[in-house]
Amino acid sequence: MSNYEFRNGAHIKGVTADEAGDELARIYKEKGQLTAPLVVDEARPQEAPLHPAFEWDDAVAAERHREHQARNIIRSVKVITPDQPSAPSYVHVASVQGYKPLSEVVQSVSMFAEALMSATRQVEQAEHALNTLRQHCNEEHEPLIRDLQLVINNTSNLLKSISAS
């Protein structure tokens, strides 16, 4: 048995990180792979360790899936403007618990600041993921890791300079 923890911001109900980690390890060991459909199948029996982590009411689950699809559509649509790179049409704004047109977000000091904070968190998450890879990779991948770290540093510095102005 290993010790596990959920990543920051994870909202997993009904199971501990140790229960989830042990069950995922068991599935991988027994099946030789770990996929979302396989985890769902293994969690179906009521006595399965991961069963409480899932919504088994099909009507509720279907609605949540449609909402996930809607978020994907909203995030995927980009506006094309002549002589400019395409940009997302809508940006998620947590304070309004929804999406706003990018053109409105950049005109509002508070929404723009919130969007910058969100972008900064995403860069920090990318840096954390890269550091994790760095800790576990072979030396042959180090040049690629260094290049990616440079991109992350440049992006982070740019975000800091924008938020300072």
Describe the protein.
- The protein has 165 residues and is mainly alpha-helical.
- The chain has a domain at 89-164.
- It contains 6 helices and 4 strands, in the order H-H-H-E-E-E-E-H-H-H.
- Strands 1-2 form a two-stranded antiparallel ribbon.
- A hairpin with a 7-residue loop joins strand 1 (78-79) and strand 2.
- Helix 5 packs antiparallel against helix 6.
- The longest helix is centred in the C-terminal third of the chain and has 28 residues, at 109-136.
- The model has no long low-confidence stretch (mean pLDDT 89).
Helical proportion, percent range: 55-70%
Radius of gyration: 20 Å
Beta-strand share of residues? 5-15%
Decide which structural class fits the backbone: mainly alpha
Q: Separation of termini?
A: 50 Å
Helix count equals 6
> What is the overall silhouette?
globular
Order of helices and strands: HHHEEEEHHH
Spatial strand sequence of the major β-sheet: 1-2
Low-confidence stretches: none
- The overall average pLDDT, rounded, is 89
* Biggest β-sheet description: 2 strands, antiparallel
Tally of extended strands? 4
Summed up:
This protein has 165 residues and is mainly alpha-helical. It has six helices and four strands, in the order αααββββααα.
